[in-house]
Recover the amino acids of this structure.
């Protein structure tokens, strides 16, 4: 059961956090409107789409992105005020320990952390689908892939080749599929173009040529007979084919990764491993980051309580400055080790969690110091 002191501190924590994160989001929105106002007016974008398809989707991402930093700032701000008003002296004088004081802070961090976890894995990917669709429609003038001579591994021995791809109409041009087993081409298919059938989730090919390599069976090994190969070829006006390749793989990179929820991303990574993709580390970093990032809320909350629960010279301003410094260092470390992981110099799981591990030691140091 939450006691009066728990409700008091928890209420201050959550109210200060909501107020501070709302304030920074409003500032971001004002600056973004100023930057994009000419685009909104010249293209006559409906106001309801601007609000619901862009800014309403804008809020979860940036709110979640800055939540650890503003959790820290919120904790430091109201805890420092309590310390300067000698409230902690009264609480400690009543027989409560420092660990007991921490309980409402941990509950608050748990609420924010779980919310961040749900946002990362479920809400934000869906919001990104809508936001990116809005940007491609109105701001990016209809995003079009400019990649040429695209190669995709679609199986252990299968390679898909596209000379070009138009993502606006989900059509690939001058396509070929090749299967190679033991350095021998056993299957080859080519077509002038293939169009995605969004209803049946397959591709419709036009002007198709299909060739198969047939190997002679039942060889006489005593006579040292060598395999005899023959091939069959056929021309078709059209052909429907299902392969592990969809239009989503030709979206912008951020569209591919950031619009997938937890389960979609896990399935996508598993399929990419089967294909032998060279970007597995990038996808795994995104998956692990979504889980590790919310844990910064707990770590920074603990540091915030420890550095601001007693009176210091310089007041709240100095403690908030320390909070901004530590939060900035955390974000910098997160990006540094994310880059290291994506280049293959460290396992993604370890690299993504290193900033949390480092800051856990920092939090433990401040915790020991605060107890004294």
């Amino acid at each position: 059961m939450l006691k009066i002191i728990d409700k008091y501190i928890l209420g201050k924590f959550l109210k200060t956090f909501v107020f501070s994160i709302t304030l920074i989001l409003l500032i971001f929105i004002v600056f973004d409107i100023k930057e994009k106002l000419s685009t909104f007016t010249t293209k006559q974008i409906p106001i309801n789409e601007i609000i619901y398809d862009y800014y309403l989707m804008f809020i979860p991402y940036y709110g979640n992105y800055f939540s650890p930093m503003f959790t820290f700032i919120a904790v430091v701000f109201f805890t420092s005020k309590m310390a300067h008003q000698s409230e902690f002296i009264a609480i400690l004088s009543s027989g409560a320990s420092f660990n007991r004081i921490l309980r409402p802070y941990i509950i608050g961090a748990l609420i924010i952390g779980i919310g961040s976890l749900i946002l990362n894995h479920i809400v934000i990917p869906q919001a990104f689908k809508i936001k990116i669709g809005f940007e491609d429609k109105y701001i990016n003038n209809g995003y079009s892939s400019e990649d040429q001579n695209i190669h995709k591994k679609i199986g252990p021995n299968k390679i898909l080749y596209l000379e070009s791809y138009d993502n606006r109409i989900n059509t690939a041009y001058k396509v070929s599929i090749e299967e190679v087993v033991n350095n021998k081409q056993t299957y080859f298919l080519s077509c002038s173009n293939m169009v995605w059938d969004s209803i049946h989730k397959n591709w419709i090919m036009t002007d198709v040529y299909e060739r198969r390599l047939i190997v002679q069976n039942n060889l006489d090994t005593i006579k040292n007979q060598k395999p005899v190969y023959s091939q069959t070829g056929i021309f078709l006006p059209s052909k429907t084919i299902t392969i592990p390749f969809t239009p989503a793989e030709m979206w912008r990179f951020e569209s591919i990764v950031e619009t997938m929820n937890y389960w979609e991303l896990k399935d996508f990574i598993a399929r990419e491993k089967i294909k032998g993709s060279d970007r597995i580390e990038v996808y795994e970093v995104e998956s692990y980051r979504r889980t590790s990032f919310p844990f910064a809320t707990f770590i920074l909350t603990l540091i915030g309580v420890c550095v601001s629960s007693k009176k210091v010279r310089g007041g709240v301003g100095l403690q908030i400055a320390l909070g901004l410094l530590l939060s900035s260092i955390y974000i910098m470390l997160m990006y540094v080790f994310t880059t290291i992981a994506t280049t293959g110099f460290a396992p993604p799981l370890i690299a993504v969690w290193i900033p949390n591990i480092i800051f856990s030691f920092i939090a433990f140091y401040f915790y020991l110091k605060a107890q004294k």
Notes: The longest strand covers residues 184-197. Residues 61 and 124 are 6 Å apart (CA to CA). The chain has two domains: 4-140+284-371, 148-250.
